Records
---
Amino acid sequence: MYTAADLRKGLKIAIDNEPYIITAFDFAKPGKGQALYRTKLKNMITGSTLDRTYRSGETFEPANLEDRKMQYLYKEDDHYCFMDNSTFEQIHISESAMGDAKNYLIDNLAVDVLIFRDSAIGVDVPNFVNLRVTQTDPWVKGDTSGSDSKPATLETGYVLRVPPFIEEGELVTIDTRTGEYSTRVKG
Amino acid sequence: MGGSWPLSRRRGALTERGAIFNRVRAFFQQKGYLEVETPFRIPAPAPEPHIDAIASAGWFLQTSPELCMKRLLAAGYERIFQICRCWREGERGERHLSEFTMLEWYRAGADYLSLMEETEALLLTAAGAERIRYRGRSIELAQPWERITVRQAFGRYAGTTAEEALAAGRFEEIMVEAIEPRLGLARPTFIYDYPASEAALSRLKQGEPAVAERFELYIGGLEIANAFSELTDAAEQRRRFEAGSAERAGLGKAVYPVAEKFLAALEEMPESAGIALGLDRLVMVLLDADCIDEVVAFTTEEL
């Protein structure tokens, strides 16, 4: 069971027995009054969204999901294909159900596929993944513009800000919870 | 895992933050205020129903330096300010950190109206400009700023009265959803004269005891500061603390020991006014930052 204080972006809770993921979260506290927790929730089955405001003291059931260890194989049209390493069963998940996870999918990545009532409705990727930089402009030494980051495209097509010293072809670690650059992989 | 880049990329914001703090300190020194330090770890926080202190080896981390600073006021320190860390359990979001930096200042002989003027002057000094950009808006800092009572704000933005909202248990919700987003958009806004029930440590208004002499400051919809003419009636303060403790007990929350030394000091405290200003929030506004994380070196999650 979760309390209102546990609410955060990415948390999966059950509402009317259906799984929802929190896509936006805002903590508000007027003056000396009671805290309000404002959320945007996405139904993980239908994709429909709703806005809900909760108060401290309210409790929540976790979304009733089963997760299966699987491996990413390939993308076909607008579906992503995964394989269960123990049974070799393959399943497909639509692009819309993938959410941000699709930014981090490289061949053979180990993921948790989320199952609700026998259907695969999404995936959880590891907190940190290593991805190669396929495009970024070179850093001009002596650049005094003071800019402390630059855009880079990763092998998955995901574009993010990285430090100026990162070069094309380098491997970088991404924090998938925030979508941000974390560190450079040396060697 | 994680490199030092998330930290080094904040250099610009942290440099600006340091400069703002320097200007704030210079403002108070020039006005004859004494910078003080009071202990972070205290035995008896003020019993606010919805502000929760973090326990620390039998005592508590302060939620505000208010009680100790008022004891200094009572001891004859007439103009004091403090920049310090405060802790509030469970408060975390884009505008909240559980550990944050507070600026509080107190002035003997002042009331909340004179503190409004001093706040205007302080923020002009801190900003170093008469106009700022925040969340896509140009905000004029030149004095005087907008002043609106809670009663007027409910009438103008909420279509109900503060009394009705309180009776229905919807005061906070209406403040957050209908009123706060409208405050401080063209210039900063002081919203003042709160219902008496919404002010635990402030004086009731002379001739209008239904409201307390309390104000909050908003810039671009963001709450920046909370101030009041201080309550100096020790018996009344004790009654309010007892009510606050009873409400905490009713909510199943920890009940703190009674701040007896503070209550005793209140007997000797001069008429005065005091204000608590969230410095991280002020830096957010001056740097046009969307999230409080951008203006501090470390968030709790990064430790």
---
Amino acid sequence: MLRISARFYCKIATQSSFKAAEYKNKIKKDKKLNFTQLLHPTKVPQTPVPAAFSDPSENVVEIDTKTIQLLERLSLVDLDSDQALATLKSSIQFADKIAHIDTQNVRPLYTVLEKQQLQLRNDQVTAGDSRAELLRCAKVTDEDYYVSPPGNIPLEQ
Amino acid sequence: MRRHLQLGIKQLTAGYINGHLSPLSVAEQALQDASSLKTLNAFVCMATDLALQQAKESAQRYADQRSLGSLDGVTIAIKDNFCTSQVPTTCASRMLQDFVPPYDATVCARLREAGAVLLGKTNLDQFAMGAGTVDSIYGPTKNIWSESFAADNWRIAGGSSGGSASAVAAGLCYAAIGSDTGGSTRNPASYCGVVGLKPTYGLCSRHGLIPLVNSMDVPGILTRSVSDCVEVLNAIAGPDALDSTTIRQPYKKLQLPEVEQIDLRSLRIGIPKEYHCDALSTEVLETWTKVADLLECAGASVRQVSLPHTAASIFVYSILNQCEVASNMARYDGIEYGHRAADERSTEQLYAQTRAEGFNQVVKTRILTGNFLLLRKNYDHYFEKALRVRRLIAEDFAKVFEASAANEQVDILLTPTTLSEAPLYKDFAALSNRDQCAVQDFCTQPANMAGIPAVSIPVRLSTAGLPLSLQLMSNSLNEQLLLTVARWIEAQVEFDCLESLQRHVASL
């Protein structure tokens, strides 16, 4: 069997040196490509290409308390800090930047596989009885049931 | 130096077959190395016992001359958002911190069946929402190419598959699985100096990949060479009855020509001009320019093309991401699996408290924003609008790949992957997650919009000694050509993925 040296190769692991690799490296460096030398007029634009669409003026986003409460209810997460609110507002501003793009007669692209028919399978049981396995993932169970606290009580806000 | 690290997967398994190497000793050393390199924080969980068990079984198969094929005994790592049976799968979130899936993702099952040895699960941004692998409950992942690991003076690995990229770059495994929704495989591949492939949408099954954005998510592959990438792709690709969004036509295993046999003279390369955006670094531009020139020198026709909706893409991506996140994250309520809060006042209260404790700020804000964009009064203005612009973006690609006039067509697009070398942690953390994603994903997310394949390959080192990479994109299901060209470039630039390891030694 080929002997694999037990020596470590990284500074965090060891302080020993590895001459052979350094040497190999040196040879390699000598014939490295010259990245400033070109043989053809380049097709790569050498200056930034300005975005072909204009930015709408930074419209100020205002969200009222009612909307925030609605969002918290729908999301079941709390908007708990001024910073979170600022991020929400700036994300909406960010989303507004495509508003002016002309999409007349352009259909929404829901999936890139739109030309493929979705495969349907027969309505038959194919997997085995995995009740025990699945229930094991839950924190609280009672016999063969998941357990939740009383329902139909509105979220305190 | 572990000499076998320099080998490709093909050479490694050849070593197993002729008995010069053993899967068990390779796995043992990999586990040992992973523990010595803990400072990188590439792994969130080691599957030590399982790995040794798998390696033993593999060694036995080789001894019996009935190996399972080209991945038998090859050490791999899997991003912690793929379900692995009996191995915890956390998405680096408190929400799933103690979740042990009862099943394997299809990708994991296929790797298991191919005999690959799973070393462990790798770090990511919580639920894969990020571009730095800095937003994880297990702490950030560090880049092996960092000049220093002190304080916050180290380089980020990129993300969100930063743990997978870091593990491959540090020689801890031969291949790692990542996921790619807007660049999450290619971005860390670019920063860590490894090959990162985002296959065509639907080529690899998403079954068991915990969903972020269903219409864009794909499993990704990270390796140290293009050939290794092909070996892994061949093992995991193909239709899956458990994922109705896989492409139904049978997968034909790729076989790349030898480098000397690659002829680029009939190849048409497009340079999409809009990919030169404001923040592009001089060194990346120089690299992009030089590789375009190399291709032209080899006889390929290289010309500039326009993908006019490129700049709009990042906004569309942000909208679709947040909308699908809002919907996908609704499943986490603490009842059936995952974290459950102690609040028993009411069902709604339990849900809310569970989610307040389980998600970080990034996830919460994306859910709230997504639900805002999906409100009845906003739905058309944001969500539907974004889907319409998404079609324009996809059509931009179709126009260059399928132009009616042959002289306007191109086969491959060449662009940067990231706009710079890997940033320092302190610089990266100075901007918010949302602002970072807008910069980091600029060149990568358009491919996810259109579902086309894209690969990032390392090209050279920057003056700071950090990897600089480029991206190639091609038309759907054109992986064969995409990776052939990638392999050709790889051979010209001779990037040494493991150089960082030697340098760490040399610098002391």
---
Amino acid sequence: MSEPAPQSARRPGLALQAPRTQSAITSPTRISLRQINAFYGPKQALFDVNLEIPDNAVTAFIGASGCGKSTLLRCLNRMNDTIPGARVEGQILMDGVDVNGAEIDPVSVRSRIGMVFQKPSPFPMSIYDNVAYGPRTHKLTKSKADLDELVERSLRRAALWEEAKDRLDKSGLGLSGGQQQRLCIARALAVSPAVILMDEPCSALDPVATAHIEQLIEDLRKHTCIVIVTHSMAQAARISQITAFFNMGQLIETAPTDQLFTAPKVEQTQDYITGRFG
Amino acid sequence: METTAAKSLIGTRKPHLGDTTFHISLYVAGAIVVVVLASILLIMFLGGRQAFETFGVGFIWSTEWNAVTSIYGALPAITGTLITALLAICIAWPIGFGIAFFLTEICPRALRAPLGIAIELLAAIPSIVYGMWGFFVLAPFMAETVQPWLTEVFAWIPPLGDSFFWFSAPPLGVGLMTASLVLAVMILPFIAATTRDVMLSTPQLLKDGAYAMGATRWETLTGVVIPAVRGSLFGAVFLGLGRALGETMAVVFVIGNATRMPDSLYAPSASIASVVANNFPEAETGSIQLAALLGLGFILFVVSFGVLALARLLLRQERMA
């Protein structure tokens, strides 16, 4: 929580850099998915997904639209519970607890897992109140001073402090798209989540804002388990350590990112990453 | 060859008859609204001018309305209008919100459409039917059951000033309270339907954002959704208020039609609309009574217009945010 603010590391050119070579992942598993099947009414969206998601790393889900990658992401924090008719079977083990268990309170799961959406979704309130939303809802701070500090720390970690510090009482809706997305990340960080889920967080942003967010993800993953859904294979290659490829609701292949993009084992993966796929 | 082809295709500017006719007729259609509105306002004002000139500010402030002595003060009618409309809002607002939130958040999918239709049917009932129901069903029930009970429970409330006794009064049935209840039922569908539409227009992303923060359904609704659409929700209420202010037929049946200052919530009273409806047939052309009634109409027009304008303003503010 106390690393220096990463706002100095803004390099718009980052998005254009070649993929970094990745060393083998040594961090332990944070989330284990066992036999996940998901349904929207009668339609099955996921088939027997088994996956280990490591801690302190970025895991990317890639695949064509409708392949089930967002559905799987939403399984991890029980967001599918909010969709009428949605049903998820299987085990999602997080720190030894099955968060998909019937006796688990979905609200408590979500309070420990941050989520960032495709479109920036700031609440219609001030920047300060946006970041303070989680701590206030879950009563994480004892005093106003504590809350002030937490808000500042979260905004610094999201690389938004310098731009926002003089307008904390202004509406979050007045920020630019990229700033709004960083505000949403700050909002998620304020509850110190063990896991952060990102559903195409950059698809509504321009390349400069995308570079900001990607740099931020790189900084955050040192201490957090990050799972990101992305349509951009280049982005997956740039920022993730593990990549999982989905097709038609099935997990086709999962491997360290550099390996998956250079030497995929399954032909379907090969076809997809080389663009020979519908 | 090429130039002639281009000429025949492109051509110079010339009037398109159909377009011009359409254009003009649309202007006329638009102008009709403004002309009708302005002329009604003008006629009301001119017709009522005699009353304003004769009684001055007293026309609005005087509590005496007496056809025999030809003294006309509008305050009793204005008071009756405001009390019934505001009471109706106080009753219908929470229920309407409850219906809307139930429909959008809790209600099983299969029940949504039938319930939505039922609410719209409630709005389709003619006001004279509400009036008869109020007079034959609600008023006796109020007189025999509700009002005696209310008196028993709330008799301890001290009177307002020395002339308004809240619930300590003979339970007559017809009067302010019954009129308010009928009005509440009448405006309920408007408030519920508008609120439901506002709630449905809330972006799912906003709710997902709150849910993802670990907010409960209640916290999401009160902390994020309602603040986001606050202006529109007030707009819904003001639309209901505007309707309650001007409602005539149902009120004539149940308000008791006594043009004097009410001394309790049970008291027979009158609203601007009911006074006009009751007295208009007897008012002679050119009489001060007719002027007073038209003046009343003008006042009601201004009040309703103000409320509706405020509602529009609030609804629009939200759309721009």
---
Amino acid sequence: MKRHHATALAVTLLALAAAAAASIRFLDHRKPEPIVRGPGVTEVRMLSEWLPDLAGSPGDTEVYVFRGASPGSSMLVLGGTHPNEPSSFLSAVLLIENALVSAGTLYVIPRANASGFTHNDPQEGAPERYSVALPGGSVRTFRYGSRATNPVHQWPDPDVYVHAASGQTLSGNETRNLNRGYPGRADGTLTERVCLGIANLIRAEKIDISVDLHEASPEYPVINAIVAHERAMPLASQVVLGLEFLDIKIGLEPSPKNLRGLTHRELGDATDTLAVLMETANPSQGRLRGRTDEALVLKGRDPYYVKAQALGRLYVPFDENGHPIEERVGRHLSGISEFAFALSSERPDRPLEFAGVPEYGALLEKGLGAFLKPLP
Amino acid sequence: MTYLYLAIAASVLGLTAWNLWTEKDWRKQATAAMVAIPLLLRVLLIK
């Protein structure tokens, strides 16, 4: 063997070894983190039950069902529509592990875009994971994902994304954004089929209200807010008042009729559900942020956002205390509880009643870990 | 489209491997080896 052939083999083996070492962590991002089945969960189903074409695909995802002892109204909570918005996913996890439903039915999808959890956004410097300590000394670790479906699962992006139902055009990468694909279509992309699966679930199970949980960067105008379809506005107004009584300030925005593909527009138009979306403040996804690490995800403190606040550039108050994950999850969970209360008040013959959901003050006082269950 | 992409990736991978095998400067060989890894992953539809 010539010398340069030997070096070719040697450098190839070295490159393969380096890639193999890196791939262990890379591929680990595709393993779903465990969620402990709480005492209130009566069934765990898969989204593919409502769209069989999704079975075995990276878009199939768990649907946790809480069926109360007495009949009543039903609610669907969507967590993880955008897996880089951790309060959305964690709020769903806390519901699954703690909620007890006595009347009506609660459906929770913690990883609405399951594919989006299997990678994170290039060049964002986001952490792969974040960990929450539990009182007993154990730790729960969760993936920080991407806003969009993994391109390994859906490729290529078109230059221009055309929303199928309306013809609305957006940039090509939005074709992998779950919250631009509703109401979905059977012969569409993976993202559109997941949207259709969720819409089918809402139709088949006659979901009365759908709550889609999100986070926004502090410089984004729609933040610490509820966005409601016009049919859901009266109910959402009651929730705003209810949250005010808990000292939680929240805005209320009507769903724009010309912004298509989003849950609060399409699910409200295409199904009978009352469609609402909730936003909290997440500095780890903002453009003005500094170092992007696990601490920023969980503590929500960033000196650059404090400066931006002083310059009047933000749409949410921002001081040295930031917006910790407990506050953000607490806002979502309080909103969900208030929606259930308001719905039950409007339909006393069909109540939706649940207990055990961590309260805002308790989350701030005890921390998120106090309400997460240790892994078996 | 996917098959066209795979054909392009496989072609570039083949040329890179040829360059790696025939090049005499070990630094350029190392560069070719590192370039070949992501191409291989793409041809195998892993990344």
